[in-house]
Amino acid sequence: MSAKIISGKEIAAQIREELKEEVKRLKSDHGVTPGLVTILVGEDPASISYVTAKQKTAHDLGFHSIQDNQPEDISEDDLLALIDKYNNDDSIHGILVQLPLPKHIDDSKVLEAIDPDKDVDGFHPVNVGRMVIGERCFLPCTPHGILEMLIRSGVETSGAEVVVVGRSNIVGKPIANLMIQKRDGGNATVTVCHTRTKDMAFHTKRADILIVAAGRPKVVTADMVKDGVVVIDVGVNRIGKTPEGKAILCGDVDFDAIKEKASAITPVPGGVGPMTITMLMKNTVQAAKQFAGLV
Q1: Would you call 98 a catalytic residue per the annotation?
Q2: Which residue among 63, 106, 119, 208 is least enclosed by CB atoms within 10 Å?
Q3: Catalytic residue among 117, 118, 119, 121
Q4: Per-residue pLDDT tens digits for 89-108
Q5: CA count, 13 A, side-chain hemisphere, 88
Q6: Any catalytic annotation for residue 173?
Q7: What is the pTM of this model?
Q8: Does the annotation count 205 as an active-site position?
Q9: Which of the following is catalytic: 98, 118, 218, 252?
Q10: Active-site residue (options: 54, 118, 173, 282)
Q11: What sign does the CA torsion over 201, 258, 268, 231 have?
Q12: Class for domain 32-117, per CATH?
């Protein structure tokens, strides 16, 4: 048996086409143009790559988009003042501050300064709290993307045994919370494994759906999963370079071996990654609709 490949690239493209049509309707019927600002501090190459991709996607969807680059040595107070400016700008519905920030700036203080109604990353404590109790909010983009992949791929989550490997605030904790809720893509029984789990394989072998966000290459091997499992691999690890200098990437699971046992699996690259930016755009459209009183 060789697993069905769940292509995040294809699913993301579908959602972006839907969003493009929705943006057209918002403009023509309501005079609303979703607005997104991405704030980049410093010149970290990976961060530059990420915000460039986000801005390109926003532009392609027809957003009003701003890329605000700030020097590495910007003071925390000046960055907070900049966020306050965008909090009060009615043409901006979503604010994203690219992490990581320089060491002299407190990440938490910056994220908490963003208006929760413009927090399209879904990291503000207010949105995290709303998510936990099941209220409408901006869901964190990677877990939101995972849910969309499962739903659109026809994976049954209700009653499923789900095992999450990793307990980060960005992926592990929120996806575990979302999948136990009474919602589409939820109603599952969820186990969370982490670095102090005594026998990880004991848990992963029970999984109907296995979500791995451990941050370590090929940490889950074929002998740790059962036949027919659905595997969502969140990891992106650079394990070398081609002779041409291009990065060689792999996920947190041993893809080549596990795809022979799994019923469905996400690739790396082309799996969860493309969904994250797409869900950021979906959150921004939601923010614009909320601001205009359309939801």
Answers
A1: yes
A2: 106
A3: 121
A4: 999 999 999 999 999 999 99
A5: 5
A6: no
A7: 0.94
A8: no
A9: 98
A10: 54
A11: negative
A12: alpha beta
